[in-house]
Amino acid sequence: MKIDLSNKTALITGATGDLGRVMARTLASCGANIVLHYNNNETKAKELQQEITAMGRRAIIVQADVTNEQQIYDMKDKAVQELGHVDIVVANAVIQYQWTSILEQPVSDYVSQFESCVMQSVYLAKAFVPAMIERNGGRIIGINTECSMQNFAGQSAYTAGKRGMDGVYRVLAKEAGGHQITVNQVAPGWTISDRDRAKHTEENSGYSQNVPLKRRGTDQEIANTVAFLASDLASFITGAYIPVNGGNVMPAI
Fold first, then answer.
1. What are the residue ranges spanned by the domains of the chain?
2. 3-state secondary structure of 76
3. Using alpha carbons only, how large is the chain's radius of gyration in Å?
4. Spatial contact of 205 and 155, defined as CB atoms under 8 Å apart
5. b/e burial code for range 61-70 (CB count within 10 A of at least 16 → b)
6. Given 61, 118, 138, 194, which residue has the most CB atoms within 10 angstroms?
7. What is the mean pLDDT of each run of 10 residues along the chain (253 residues)?
8. Contact 50/34 with Cβ under 8 angstroms?
9. How far is CA 10 from CA 108, 164, 180, 213, 250, in A?
10. What distance in Å separates the CA atoms of residue 88 and residue 82, rounded to the nearest whole number?
């Protein structure tokens, strides 16, 4: 048994980011062609495109503001024109900002999180799900966070945006399920990425001591979960919020 995404096309928003890059490489290694979305980092997008084409896959890069509905539709049109229909959509992009208390957090940060978490998810659904309905199948995967269960001080804007995203995905799972479209979320913990490896900051005992597995997860472990959900192996899983954080948060029944 293996994950086989041959003849599939996957779109990853925020593909030049720490997690997005590994997701793109992983889905390509499973056989998928890749639509690489970026906002500002065209250089990194082109480098990643070259990596994936060297693997024997097709890859295109598309610049878009994921908080802009028309740009999402334009991205869809380019993807369809160059690679055909999109089978897998991974909503990974999010706007970064400085975390602080609710009383000190600028209102604009709440707006940016709503737009990049909730509205990105809505725009992607409106753009890509209709064609999935016509084909009677597809995969929608959102990258959420363990923060949406922790609700720690200083996380309010991010947590609010991701919890709103969670609501959209759960409803979409019910609305699209009859067309064999699965809609799931992956919720990483504080994940080790290339940024940590470059700075040698992989270890953080203050965080890891509270994790049942006593370590931080890796970007590859997040990407592995995305690849599983994108595959036929996960054909009967939908509406799930799956923490990939060593048990640091555990959804209750």
1. 9-189+218-243
2. helix
3. 17
4. no
5. bbbbbbbeee
6. 138
7. 95 97 98 97 97 98 98 98 97 96 98 98 98 98 97 97 98 98 97 91 91 96 98 98 97 89
8. no
9. 31, 24, 17, 31, 29
10. 16
How far, in Å, CA of 108 to CA of 157, rounded? 10
Q: Determine whether domain 9-189+218-243 maps to CATH 1.10.540.10.
A: no
First to last CA, the chain: 30
Q: What value, to the nearest 5°, has the Cα angle with vertex 57 and ends 129 and 35? A: 35
Amino acid in position 52: I
Note the pTM of the prediction, 2 decimals. Answer: 0.96
For 83, residues 6+ apart whose C-beta sits below 8 A from its C-beta are 9, 33, 35, 58, 60
Which active-site residues does the annotation give? 158
- Residue 88 CB contacts under 8 Å (≥ 6 apart), including other chains: 5, 8, 9, 10, 11, 27, 32, 138, 139, 141, 230
Q: From CA 138, how far away is CA 8, in angstroms rounded?
A: 10
The per-residue pLDDT for 230 is 98
Decide: helix, strand or coil at residue 60. strand
For residue 244, the surrounding DSSP H or E stretch is: strand 241-244
Q: Which amino acid is at 166?
A: D
Contact partners, residue 50, CB within 8 Å, separation at least 6: none
Residues 6 or more apart whose Cβ sits within 8 Å of residue 207 = 190, 216
Q: Please report which residue ranges of 86-245 form alpha helices under DSSP H.
A: 107-113, 120-135, 147-150, 156-176, 194-199, 205-208, 219-230
Residue 170's CB is within 10 A of a number of other CB atoms, namely 17
